[in-house]
Design a protein that fits this description.
Blueprint lengths: L1 E3 L2 E3 L11 H20 L1 H13 L3 H8 L6 H14 L8 H31 L5
Antiparallel strand pairs: 1-2
Helix pairs in contact: 1-2, 2-5, 3-5, 4-5
Length: 129
């Protein structure tokens, strides 16, 4: 077997009869991901890198913390609530609590990327004289 992305493909006489679905889906995912990055510009590359490092996509982090827009107050409020209810001492799950922490870290990283992008845009503008 030869590794390909996250899946594996077989080689040899039966290679033509065996379909490698994971390889195909990985390829289509790459095209969709590239199109999304192109639409977002430079910040898309930083966001994709943050997703790779944290292991969570921005959408997944938003779903975990149940938010639709990146508002720091809403993120913090939902984080505190979910962190408390998933505490092991009250019968919660350490696994879920750690997912909540990782989601908050990912969203904080995204807010930082957006702030950097906005400061670059403002520094590139000419002051009114």
């Amino acid at each position: 077997m030869v590794p390909f992305g996250r899946g594996t493909c077989r080689t040899g006489p039966r290679a033509k009869s065996i379909t490698c679905l994971k390889a195909r889906s990985t390829g289509s995912w790459r095209y969709a991901s590239q199109a999304a990055m192109d639409a977002r510009g430079c910040s898309g590359r930083q966001s994709a890198a943050a997703s790779t490092i944290s292991g969570l996509s921005l959408q997944e982090a938003q779903q975990i913390l149940n938010i639709s827009k990146l508002l720091p107050k809403e993120i913090q409020k939902n984080y505190e609530h979910l962190f408390k209810v998933n505490d092991k001492s009250v019968g919660g799950s350490f696994y879920l609590q750690s997912k909540v922490v990782r989601a908050k870290e990912r969203l904080d990283e995204e807010l930082q990327i957006q702030a950097q992008q906005e400061s670059k845009q403002e520094s590139g503008r000419k002051p009114d004289t």
